[in-house]
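dude i think i finally got it to work??
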Amino acid sequence: MRQKEEGERREERADSASKQGIGGTISEGAGTVGDRLVSARSFFKRHEASILALRPPVSSTRPSMGWAAARMKLAEEAAGWLKGKEVCHSLMREQRFAPLILKVLTCMGAQEELCGVLGCVMEGMAGLAHHPTGVEVLVGCFQLVSSRIKSGKVATSPYAPVVEQVRQVVAGEEWRGLLSERRALRVACAMLELSCSLRGSGECKVAEAGSRERISRSLESLFEEICRRTLECLNGGLLEHADDDVGSLFLRPLLSAMTSGQQDGWQDKYVENLLAVKADANGEDVSEGTYKALHKLLSTAAGKSLVKDLMMVCCKDGSRAAMFKQIFRFCLQQVEEAHTDQIRHPEMASVSPSNQEEEGVSCSAIKVSFFLLCEGQCKAASFKPDKDDSQWWGRRDALCRSVAASMWREEARGWEHTQECVLLFDDMGALRIGKEVTRKIRVPTERRLLSMMRDACLGANETDGLQYYKGVGDDKFEVLKDDTDRLRKRFRKLLGRCSEDTCVVLLHEDYPHELPVFGQTNVDNKFRHVIFVLGTVRDMTVNEQKALAAAVEEKSITVLGCNLGRSAEFTSKVLFALNCHAVNGRLSPAIHQLFLLSRGKFDIAKLEPVYLKNSKDVKTDEGECRTERDSGQASRRLHFAVFLGLSACEVSSSSASRDSMYALSQIIVCGLWRSNLGELMERKSRLTGYSCLVSIVFACGTIFTADQTLVRHLASQHKAAPSEHQILSILKDSLQSTRSDELLPGISVSVQKGKMKKAIREIMEHHELSCLVVLDMVEVGCCSTEAGAQDDEMSAVKLADLVYSQPCHCEQSCMSLSARGDEATRNGSNAQQEFDIIVCIKVIKDQSLLSKTSSRINKVFSALLQGGDIMTYSPVLLSPAGKPLSPQASVSSIQHWSYHGLLGIAAKRTGESCPQLEAKPARPLLGNSVRALPVLSSAGSLALIQLLLELASPELLSSFSRKLKKAIKASPGLSPSLSAALETANNRRASGMAAANDSAIRSDRVTDSVTVGN
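look at this
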């Protein structure tokens, strides 16, 4: 009652304040921010219809009267409410008031007043650009300013503060964040449109004579500033943004604007960076990665337009003729190679770079879906992407890691076998996330995923691949959240239509059977679709188990239950392990074997949790019996040495640079954190597998090393949730610390400038050298393709095959040790050999630096092996060739194998597979040399040839025509493919000659008329 009366009194104060207009509450600043916000909401609600009926002012010398005067006064009062920053930004975040704000701004007549309100609206635009309604208001504001400037009827001097605010955003780290998210990218495009309007506007006609030149220079420089900053942010080249929203929504209008301007030196640099142009002895050439990016772009209409604009910028300068010739020669070579392969291998004619990925999806042995049971309510207010430093609340950090692990194989690429991830919350609200999301969200950071979930709850149209199921309201939440009948109906709806070859598998470490993925030779496949159900942060409740059992029984679906080992683990790392099983082709036969072990029947009630409650007896290698509490930590060490392509000074915890920091933060989390690790270490319980370390080797020589003591310390400080902000803040503070006693427990930082050998020696100081095995991963994460990996893959050991060929050696496996016999027992004892393992992971996007780093690591460890300092050194593959895993997925998979006692055996056997290694020189960048691997398909090469013929100068056109004729003459079978290109070249040459003749005739006529006149 007291809260109700207080709310009524507040509403009365708001009504009285809004009736008085803006005279008291806003101008005098009376009342708290909450009171002013309530008054503003009341004002806009009361006058909503009148505000929507406002019309832009008409310039007239007559004073406004009647309804016109009333509308003008209403617009002024509404604008007064928007002059308060807190009130304005709160209203912008509400869907009801966003169109009203835009309407008020559009109907304001005085330029100074409008610019004052715009300054308040755009203050803090970097944060508003990530909000669905905030984006609409910001884009509308920029379009309003652009339209008024284009009209040429207003002076631009009042807009100088607004332009300065835009310039500050472009110059800061916020610009990188705007370019990396689909929604915020619309704001960046609106800024680009504004800069183009300022660049070509007629403001000089109406500006004051004294300040006209200064204003013109200041406004026109905004466009150049945007181009320069974009050049810095898109340092990865076109390949990084070939198939995402940046390529289609921002680069295309930017290139179109560049083609309409003057050709300056910085534009040359921009194009060189975008195309990744490399100079060699024969001229300029484009990198192989850029050809792959062009191939992706040429497969869509929007991409073709982008490529055309890019080539048009190159055409404006005659110095690009050599590069054009190289591109044309490469495309023609690809067409010839495709024709030759078709003759030699007609059965492979249908396989091209464009359909390899789709073919891999269709040939997948099994389709996988994930049902995750989550805490909290599924409503927009529960997802707060802007609260970067408090994502531990409600464990949203864990939710985001689980979603990312279930859907993304690496950046900008999803798991081929994963169909969807369904999140079911306590209020029975749900989110269905389809695989289309992985194409729209390049890097699954916490901010992006939470924004996606919030937008789905708000019903935003941008969230393709998402489906929202509304839960019970707040008033009924406590009463109905455990209603078994409602849960059953929700499960039945989420399961949808399921065929007979669908299987539901419940996961928990206390289920009796372990998923039999190791040591199995059975290749039978009974199920084509498997749905894994498990809890995120929490376990499934009894009511949820009963409801799921009833829903599955109604649909006549097979239900099974299993564990992935007795070690409790993060849900995200469990999902990584399952996806790794699927990538290596082990998941489908394992589900079939589990069905045989369970005999098709499964009691859905799981065992009582015993992992933390009881002390279990453990047999040591010597045969003595001791409890886990007294056994201490694992004596063996698993060390992840991660080599990065960035310097330590580039580490940042800001949300704007989160994309480039994402892999770094996730490697640390996956490498060090485990479920209940802090509590286990506090109890001095025996840890299954290895104790883990992570060393980050930066390009500048700085080495950051952390062990699991850090996890224990953070848990004791009630900071157990490893959110992105927390991890990056710890990393940044540690790197900036000048004293070792200022570092947190478990962290060490050293600087080893100079040779790679010093950095590796620093890493090896954590181990006993005589018992050390080194595994060098060939795959490279973070969506980067290693140019030198093709040769290495031929000699690399397939570590996954060695692991999966061995039976499981953990103590609680799906089959008892007695059933395996003495041989398995002996292998189990061999698995406990005491030696440490170092796993080298290279996360470097720059191809030249990557090749150089790989060569140095290979050279140093090969020399150490020959000198007897280490046991074995082997380049290894963790997944099938062509399907690299992200660094965090690789780390999680290796840890999962160590829990089962298989990593040590496989690591030891890698030395037997490649006993002798020689240091190999660094592979040069692919330049004008002949490329053996097909990069462009025949269709893509022909499309690029056609585009070059349309844009080439007359001199280049003659050269291209001769090359086409020569190719057709050498291989008549190419005539059907190249005839259209040759016809285009001939037509352009003929039209050029006709135009030249007409010009000559007109010149002769002018000369004759002058002669006659004389």
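The CA atoms of residues 754 and 999 lie 65 Å apart.
im so relieved honestly
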